[in-house]
Amino acid sequence: MTERPSLDQDQFLTVLSREEAVARFVAALQPKPLGLEIAALSDLVGRVLGRDIAAPVDTPPFDRSVVDGFAVSAADVAQASEAAPVMLALNGETIACGTLPRLALAAGTATPIATGGPIPRGADAVVMVEHTNLAADGRLVVSRAVAPGQNIAFAGSDIARGETLLRAGTVIGAREIGMLAAVGLAEVEVWRKPHVAVISTGDELVAPGQPLRPAAIYDSNGPIVAAALQENGCDPIRFGAIADDAALLEATMREAHATCDAVILSGGTSKGAGDLTYRIVGSLGAPGIVAHGVALKPGKPLCLAVCEGKPVVILPGFPTSAMFTFHDIVAPVLRTLAGHPERAEVTLTARVPVRVPSDLGRTEFVMVALAETASGRVAYPIGKGSGSVTAFSQADGFVTIDALSEAMPADTEAEVTLFTPHLTVPDLVIMGSHCVGLDAVIARLGAHSLTARSLSLGSLGGLAALRRGECDLAPIHVLDPATGTYNRPLLSPGMDLIPGWRRMQGLVHRLDDRRFAGAVDVPTAVATALADPACLMVNRNQGAGTRILIDQLLAGAKPPGYWNQPRSHNAVAAAVAQGRADWGIAIKPVADANGLGFLPLGPEHYDFAVSAAPRAPAAIDAFRKAIAEAADALKALGFIPASEAP
Amino acid sequence: MTERPSLDQDQFLTVLSREEAVARFVAALQPKPLGLEIAALSDLVGRVLGRDIAAPVDTPPFDRSVVDGFAVSAADVAQASEAAPVMLALNGETIACGTLPRLALAAGTATPIATGGPIPRGADAVVMVEHTNLAADGRLVVSRAVAPGQNIAFAGSDIARGETLLRAGTVIGAREIGMLAAVGLAEVEVWRKPHVAVISTGDELVAPGQPLRPAAIYDSNGPIVAAALQENGCDPIRFGAIADDAALLEATMREAHATCDAVILSGGTSKGAGDLTYRIVGSLGAPGIVAHGVALKPGKPLCLAVCEGKPVVILPGFPTSAMFTFHDIVAPVLRTLAGHPERAEVTLTARVPVRVPSDLGRTEFVMVALAETASGRVAYPIGKGSGSVTAFSQADGFVTIDALSEAMPADTEAEVTLFTPHLTVPDLVIMGSHCVGLDAVIARLGAHSLTARSLSLGSLGGLAALRRGECDLAPIHVLDPATGTYNRPLLSPGMDLIPGWRRMQGLVHRLDDRRFAGAVDVPTAVATALADPACLMVNRNQGAGTRILIDQLLAGAKPPGYWNQPRSHNAVAAAVAQGRADWGIAIKPVADANGLGFLPLGPEHYDFAVSAAPRAPAAIDAFRKAIAEAADALKALGFIPASEAP
């Protein structure tokens, strides 16, 4: 009998509600700011003030002129006008900025004063230079009356000495720095930034920049968590990605716990490593683990611990799960340690056009992309799964489905929490099948001052979205078996087709696979493959144009591997290159990128379905132009622009 | 004859419209990003991507399991159910994360696989561990069917090799860092940050942290501009505050221009220094000054130059003017040099309850504070003048009045541009006369989980705002001459008074002023002062309670200085301390802070007018409690809580 793997750990979790998990974590930690430190004015942007600041001086520190002109006694010029100007003797000094007046102002006199100059004793107003002239006898001619106090900023009128200037807890920006500088403070007490250890664990992790071993993946959680810590007022201390070596992991975790204010682990995706990590966390100090398993989706495996007064958190291994749990549960606590105010969430309302199923009993976060459509603002769920990291960048925010709901019904007007407060709505929304050629076209939209967002929904998903008015363009490549033509037969009434490009499809195999050495074309290669029961194929998903071609080639046969049905050319090429399959049908650029042999079969048509009465006709025109402008780039990628196709 | 001061420079300006000034600046500079540099993943937060990034690998790089369970051939378990489970033989390996499968999966078998493990050859689905059991004979019991592809993430399904992952111009945050890490990129090309020289000029400037000379002020523009540069993607290079020394200033400006990508000067408030600066800018290279004088309020003296391809800007000296012109005119150009996207402004609509006069022919920015009132959201203009730096912190944003308007009429529904995207509406809005004692009370509101904003409008301004429902509390200290009592006679029907505290008022004089040496009380001191025509008083503004007392004391006399009428106790004390006047009436804590002699006159009552039917009764109750809790702090400040007053 083989060794039974340790795979059932989830069964031992006591899954807590989100609220209960947070309550236990907070009760065990009692989070509060860690302490104060002195920071200089030049290092304050983004820091949080630790104490109320009272102004140590009046600002301005003296009564000063706010114009260029002449200090006077207002009573002297109370009757002055253009018709009846008043003559004043000029005093023998000019009050510039930064110079103290030497002479008191006597009745019937005026003293030249610059903006910012201190008002001399005896003056109670300033006449603007524009309302004066110099007489031939050297006296000043004042042609406009001024009221007492006019054009004077009195001492303390901006900030009075003793007044509270800024309050503890204020996040410091340029405005606050100006206030501190104005009262002469060169440094202030701010909350110390928590030093937070970031540890990734798992044999499968490779640091970015290193070559990727077979079966390994790059450590993305470490860099994401480090960046998210920076965005939440903490200093990340990177301990790198640690393999599943008990001694090394324990030594690293002990050092991190001893030297940092908090420890964040992310468990790779390996449960074996997880077991080890949980055991070590349990040994770092009381009270230890307070929650392991939280009714969140994504994020159920989250583990929260407090060891000797410091938070120790094990985030789920999948990036999306890690980030949602970090932001929802961990960041608020770390912000408190950092003295940062609660994160101000920006939300808006949008219609979710499709039904979103949800697990009863778990609070579920669903990422959405926003689009302004003919039918209003729409939030489109991005269903890439918690293993995805691209979902985050395509999403504008997320909707939350209550633990008591089994689904969010289609057309719900949902509250969307934005990832960043500034929502940039793209000019063109593109939903359908993705192609690297599309990237080349989108890259040229910038020259037309247009932005686009592309979401991969597959050809049929894109057509459905276009039909509902949720996107502007649907890139498709669907073969109609009845007519043997691509794309056009799929259009609904009221849709047009913008020609795109052709992508040469063919049979891919490893170059060192002797079985295909003699195959001169696809039919001979397929015959060879079918003759060998050890020869595994990789298929494509139902609905793909390529799948229809494959079924035609197989003529009813269902050889081994037939049920292996990935959704993309890239997955087919990867399966063959990595030996999980021996042949499949994919496009030539992808075969080339994977170093595979390629027997051409025929061109797939990649075109764009569009409404005949589009929401933004000028943007659609620009998109047509961008396709034409991208012709050379498309050819360099191995595609044939439709305009140049036979 | 005295030397005529050089004060008329504004008359030589050719004032351009805002649009014309921007157009000339942009035409002369042709701003574009400065260049690319390589930055490591850990240094990317807030940087701007310089090139489109195509994924160099598929993510995931192989077909992987998204659950803990058993890799199978879906066809084998197509009929499995609780009632009719399917038995499979277990293969002799467990596929952990990071380990390459050694064995191909044959029909009728299953291989244990962990979440993230690579799918073995021959498998096309994964059964979750929860849907399996181990039979006594060591075989796997599968009690749930799986579809082909189920629980598998196919290679490239998240990011396909060659796909554009991120586009040039993207501002990088945690999400983007995760994507770059996931495809193994340890560094990327970002736009280089412009190095921008920051120079303050003026004899009157003192660096924060240094003692303040008489007639000098602290340099706040230097620190504000440096921080605003950081907030706009630039690296500030501080050249400090330079006195009006032609040789030093020219050397500094030449070095700044030679070594930095841009130069920002702020001219103190001195026009003499200004003349010098303009001349030097003119000599730094072609084309030189392109706009000098822009029809903006505040901000008219703004000077824009381009010298040998680098922007050189002279900001107005007053902090508010400097910041509005920086953000409106200069920041957009610097953001382009930094490769940063246009700043996304967040705006909202609010009613401006009062008429705001505006200069015809100048685009005017008026700072406003927002409040949620009984009559909806109100934007209250903060009329502190361009010399103010506190206005910035009390304001939530600003309204813009068109150059063609002479005023914004009262009750305009205006668009408010927010300074920060997150608007925090305070629980209590306090408008009226300010007192450092009020700061002590507000400091205690935090313990009641309340926030407050206090705006200084004077007692009568506060009462008017309360009458209009624009604030919750109006702190007032107004003597009714008819009854000789404070505050209560001023209330309108429907207002109540919350008792505050008493502030001892008295006559202040310099301790070394021999004339007051023999004065035993205020009447004898006033008699002494009136007897000496060289003895200058400082009065208070009309409407102040203290003014009524002063007029009673003077009994109709109007001695020298009577028309010098500042609006605060602090200004009175500063005028006496700095020798601009010899006596005045102020409160004792302010006299003490300024080191002045004090002859007590009588207590001023500082109380809070409030609506009898307040918008937020619980917050008002908390405020009453906070006054009681602040009793000791008030006494330490020299005040007498009303509850302890005779």
Automatic annotation (TrEMBL), chains A, B:
Its cofactor is Mg(2+). It catalyses: adenylyl-molybdopterin + molybdate = Mo-molybdopterin + AMP + H(+). Residues 197-336 form the MoaB/Mog domain. It is an enzyme of class 2 (transferase). One of its GO terms (cellular component) is cytoplasm. Pathway: Cofactor biosynthesis; molybdopterin biosynthesis. Keywords: Magnesium, Metal-binding, Molybdenum, Molybdenum cofactor biosynthesis, Transferase. GO terms for molecular function: metal ion binding; molybdopterin molybdotransferase activity. InterPro entries: MoaB/Mog-like_dom_sf, MoaB/Mog_dom, MoCF_biosynth_CS, MoeA-like, MoeA_C_domain_IV, MoeA_C_domain_IV_sf, MoeA_linker/N, MoeA_linker/N_sf. Belongs to the MoeA family. This is Molybdopterin molybdenumtransferase.
